[in-house]
């Protein structure tokens, strides 16, 4: 799954503050803004990371991105993206944290919980190992910034 979410960016009127407003059609009530377009796009990345991180913490799913259809897209940084992928695979396969820890040869779920903690800087090779234990692999793609 790709985590590139389409966004709708519009300049606000002077009465609205004259900033740039960013909305996320796939995320209910998600909105951010910036003084200029560059700041609005930077804030959009932060916003999507926050939304994904919140869903991982609450152990909930999140929407699949809709087609861009000519709109700009933003996605999370690699760390949050990798953790999101791991969380979705665990959910999809119905694998518990205890089961994943067992597959990885760990006595406790502490390290597995850290892999899903958006605030914890996990080593990529550990996320790769967890995904491999679930029959998946992470694919890296290079894309232009929105």
Number of strands: 4
Spans of at least 5 consecutive residues whose pLDDT stays below 50 are none
Strand order of the largest sheet: 3-2-1-4
CATH architecture of the largest domain: 2-Layer Sandwich
Please report the distance between the alpha carbons of the first and last residues.
Answer: 19 Å
Number of structural units classed as domains: 2
Notes on the protein architecture:
The structure is a single chain. The chain has helices spanning 37-57, 78-93, 97-104, 110-116, 124-133, and strands at residues 5-11, 20-23, 31-34, 72-74. With 146 residues, it is an alpha+beta fold. It folds into 2 domains: 5-74, Double Stranded RNA Binding Domain (2-Layer Sandwich); 78-133. The longest helix has 21 residues, at 37-57. The radius of gyration is 17 Å and the shape is elongated.
């Amino acid at each position: 799954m790709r985590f590139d979410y389409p966004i709708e960016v519009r300049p606000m009127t002077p009465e609205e503050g004259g900033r740039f407003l960013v909305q996320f059609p796939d995320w209910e009530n998600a909105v951010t803004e910036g003084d200029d377009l560059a700041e609005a796009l930077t804030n959009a990345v932060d916003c999507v990371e926050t939304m994904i991180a919140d869903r991982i913490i609450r152990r909930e799913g999140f929407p699949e991105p809709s087609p861009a259809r000519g709109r700009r897209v933003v996605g999370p940084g690699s760390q949050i993206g990798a953790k999101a992928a791991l969380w979705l695979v665990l959910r999809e396969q119905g694998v518990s944290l205890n089961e994943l820890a067992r597959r990885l040869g760990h006595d406790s779920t502490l390290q597995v919980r850290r892999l899903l903690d958006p605030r914890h800087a996990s080593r990529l090779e550990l996320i790769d190992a967890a995904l491999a234990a679930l029959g998946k692999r992470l694919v890296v793609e290079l894309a232009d910034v929105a």
